[in-house]
Amino acid sequence: MANDLTVTQARDVKLLQSSLYPGASEASVGMVLEYCRARKLDPFLKPVHIVPMWDSKSKTNRDVIMPGLNLYRTQAAQSGQHAGTSEAEFGPVQEFVMGNRKVRAPEWCRVVVKRIMPNGSVAEFGVTEYFEEACSTTKDGVPTAIWLKRPHGMLAKTTESMALRKAFPDFAGQETKDEMEFCDQFVEKGLIDKLTKLINSKFTRI
Predict the structure, then answer these.
(1) What is the pLDDT of residue 176?
(2) Taking a C-beta distance cutoff of 8 angstroms, is the pair 66, 175 a contact?
(3) What confidence tens digit (pLDDT) does each residue in 107-122 have?
(4) What own/partner pairs with CB < 8 Å and gap ≥ 24 does 190-195 have?
(5) Strand 101-106 versus strand 48-55 pairing type
């Protein structure tokens, strides 16, 4: 039984490496399988991402498994309690100076998620996120490539992720890959170990 499981796992790792996670190490894809198994997710639907982060303590890159926005959307829908998500509302476009770059982006974004409560009422959980606070930057303080290319899209995804986590804290407690997209500030503050401990404490390995 154990040998069969090992063979199956090895097969799944190879399949995921060649399809959804090209270039990822066997160890990192193995973490994906463990994460998905613990949460009873289908790894072949790619509910999570492998995010490389620089660990300032060890001076090396470490892969961290993070959920994607689509996972929280799916879980909210499957809960039977999701009563809708508003379209992203944006504030006025402004010019920000970040590092040595000038960036034009909306000042803020607001998203409201509705949840059906146990008494049948519908509660609204709104989040307003500001570009300067949400934007992921390099060590030089310049927005990362994806934020430079899609400031509206990234701010909307980040805000929706936060709104879903606010409305559904029972299953959407961890930041998504969209919220932490290559965020060097996150790593430089030494929080990568805390994130790893959070994942390990929430999900029991099978």
Answers:
(1) 56
(2) yes
(3) 999 999 999 999 999 9
(4) 190/56, 190/57, 192/53, 192/55, 192/62, 192/64, 193/57, 195/64
(5) unpaired
Whose tokens are 């607001």? That residue is 110
| Token pair belonging to 184 | 């060097």
- DSSP code per residue over 44-85: GG--EEEEEEEETTTTEEEEEEEE-HHHHHHHHHHTT-EEEE
Residues 6+ apart with CB under 8 A from 14: none
Per the structure block, which two tokens stand in for 80? 């039977």
Confidence of residue 187 (pLDDT cuts 50, 70, 90): very low
Strands 93-98 and 101-106, how do they pair? antiparallel
Q: Write out the H or E segment, with its range, that includes residue 94.
A: strand 93-98
